[in-house]
């Protein structure tokens, strides 16, 4: 059977590998010209870990993982105001937490494609899905390549794994305004070469202890620094992402100012939002990962759910003998998977209220919560809150 996957992010690549291993012929369309280098550090725990172990992806991920010892909040002078020990965080999250840079997670998923029989999976970078054509019992898609040429694809199954602003979702279920739940923040991420800052932030996430915005950075093992900036957009903000970030973050200390200086012209910068859908499938089309169930970085499980959802979808499809059974298999997957997505979304929404404190009282409360996490009797009480609200 033939599958067409739009989006070579984590969800799309893991679904491609699983279907390829099950003997499907798979085409993956990705609008970027190659694997995307952007993104910050993601905590990988919960359903994704169990799924990765089950499908044999875990060794690839463990190899790519970074060693994080602590998350440290600092003031404008770089002095630590609160610290969370990562072993403690890992224990609160039920153990087995991997810290993975988003592009490393994507690279690991790409490497794992080699587990499928040769010739079964075709990756088309620089190929943007433009229009879905629904047909009884099959799907077709018009795409555009890097040279502006139209290309026509047909398959038995279409998987929309094209992220928060999914074109497949728009074509099959309608405009994104009906499904996107904006959590009132934006998140930007980029990676820069800065050995000096790297040395001071090795093995620890450093986060600014600030009101209304949070800048976070982490020293990677190759000497570069991964930067994450979370903020609330304001009316009159500059259109250009770099100018906007400079407007919001200048003055949070010398390190942040230096990272702003090095910010690329157009870093990854998007709304922090969830996608809430009544169902994920329609006929032979299904939505996967952020496209159908984004939980937001506040839930801390985007990568984990991308892997777990892809594994579950492929498991629902692997024993089908006839393409006519696809719609029922997709509907079954949708009903089961939505339960997991809803629960992660609820935790993301709870975290949204406390993630960017709006006042000094809110900031002091967050400090107290983090400091109290080392007091054993309070561990259970605040575990959920810490896990949900720590910056990724
Ligand atoms: C560049 C980038 C940086 C990110 N950084 C972070 C981060 O720092 N922290 C965090 O928690 N989450 C981040 N995310 C989100 C995180 O990757 C997802 O929440 C999670 O991994 C689920 O992934 P996904 O595969 O469902 O979607 P995504 O990772 O968004 O992947 C979707 C893919 O589809 C492609 N695509 C979109 N439209 C089309 C189209 N019309 N035709 C063909 N291809 C298309 C995109 O280029 C992208 O590669 C980032 C996402 C991206 C794309």
Overall mean pLDDT: 90
What's the CATH superfamily of the largest domain, by name? FAD/NAD(P)-binding domain
User: Spatial order of the strands in the main sheet?
Assistant: 5-4-13-14-15-12-16
Helical amount: 25-40%
As a percent range, the share of strand residues is: 25-35%
Query: What does the main sheet amount to?
Result: 7 strands, mixed
Characterise the protein shown here.
By secondary structure, the chain is α/β, with parallel strands linked by helices. It folds into two domains: 202 residues, FAD/NAD(P)-binding domain, CATH 3.50.50.60; 151 residues, D-Amino Acid Oxidase, Chain A, domain 2 (2-Layer Sandwich). Helices cover 38% and strands 28% of the residues. The chain has 14 helices and 18 strands. The strands form four sheets. Strands 5-4-13-14-15-12-16 form a seven-stranded mixed beta sheet, with helices on both faces. Helix 1 runs parallel beside helix 11. It is globular and about 65 Å long.
